[in-house]
Structures are given as C-alpha cells and as structure tokens.
Amino acid sequence: MPTPTKGARLGGSPAHEKLILSNLATSLFEHGAITTTAAKAKRLQPLAEQMITKAKRGDLNSRRQVMKRIKDKSVVHVLFTEIGERYADRPGGYTRITKLGPRKGDNAPMVKIELVEALADSPKAKKAPAKKAPAKKAAAPKDDEPKDEKVQDVVTGKYDNSAAPNADGSAPEGFTIKGNEDSMKFHTTESPWYDQTVAEVWFKTEADAEAAGFAKAGGSDDDK
C-alpha cells in the first residue's frame, strides 16, 4: 500500500487534489512554465517528471497511463512527440522551481515551475552546422602594390610622421624608432629588444610614436 502523502491535501478530497495536479501538469506541458504556490509546485514536480519519463519511452502503455491524468489529447501529443524527444539523453531533472516572493492578499509563497532546456550535447538538440561559403582565393599582389597590409596602412597615412620599412627591411633614412603593431609598442635604440624587434613601422621621434597610439616598451618581458 502506498505511503500517504504528509501534510494537508491541496483540495478538499483526494479526488479534488488529483484533479488539481492534473490541470497543473496540463498547463505546464502546454505553456512550458506556470506560476503557482510553492505547495502546489512541490507536489506537481514529481508527477510532471514521471510523465516526461513515460513520454521518453513512447510506448502505447505509457501513453495510456499519461492519458489517465491528462485529458487533453493535443497536450499528450506534444508531450510524447516534442518534450519526450527533447530530453531523450537527459537522465532526469526536467523541471526547475524558482521562488518569486509572497502573493498579495494572503501572503502565500509563489514560485515559477518550468521545463528546463535539453542538454546542449544531446544529438537531437544539436542543429546541423551551417555550410560555410568557400573562401575566395586572394588575388596575387602586383609588383607596384605593397604586399603587407600593415605596410599599406602606413603608406596611405595611417600614422602621421611615420614611414614603412624599406624593401630589404631596413630603416628609412632619419627614422630610428621601431614600432610593432601587434603589441602597439615602440622601441628606441636603448631598448634591450631593439635588435630582436622587427619594425612594422618607423618613427623619427618618441613623440611621433606616442601620437600614433604606440606606448614605449618597458623593462619587462611582457612589453617585448
């Protein structure tokens, strides 16, 4: 014999309580979330999860057992065809209860009970990845055009009072300060990394480099 539920019933009789829970379960599966009292939600949660477990089985016997409590055939159809498949790879915990605060009037604690989302790694929950368009081949640079995009920015005046490296990578005449666009740092001849730094842009003075948004390399390896 099943153990009687502790506490007061939700209705005036066992039949009334059973009807209340059936109506709550129907609304939950129809709308995905409902607002009710904490007492009703605690009694509804195990019933709703049992029905979802039966819907995951999908056999005729399970459908008949669910239809004893839920009379709306359209809701039963949604439960077995959509909700059951959504949680096919989830072992349990299909619902969530969130506290909302007391209700005005009788001060009853109100909660929101809702269906949680399916597991993100569920094969049925995954969508087919969108096909990427084939990448276009980059046009070969012409001899009279700069091959490096960053050098092109310098030539077109991205930085004032700056110059691009020579074709052999050497510094233009009169430019001694190396600028690195990846780190946005500039190196003077006193910098310990001056020889190891590959200049992407050259400046004449520190003031020109700072005006272009570069910061002077400090004394730590992070500034290299």
TrEMBL record:
Highest taxon, organism lineage: Bacteria
Keyword Ribonucleoprotein appears in the UniProt entry: yes
Positions of the UniProt region annotated as Disordered: 122-189
Listed PROSITE patterns: RIBOSOMAL_L17
Compositionally biased residues, Basic and acidic residues: 140-152, 179-188
Keyword field contains Lyase: no
A GO molecular-function descriptor: structural constituent of ribosome
Cellular component per GO, a single term: cytosolic large ribosomal subunit
InterPro entries: Ribosomal_bL17, Ribosomal_bL17_CS, Ribosomal_bL17_sf
Comp. bias intervals (Basic residues): 125-135
Keyword annotations of the record: Ribonucleoprotein, Ribosomal protein
Record GO biological process: translation
Family in the record: Belongs to the bacterial ribosomal protein bL17 family.
Quaternary structure note: Part of the 50S ribosomal subunit. Contacts protein L32.
Protein name, UniProt field: Large ribosomal subunit protein bL17
Species: Kribbella kalugense
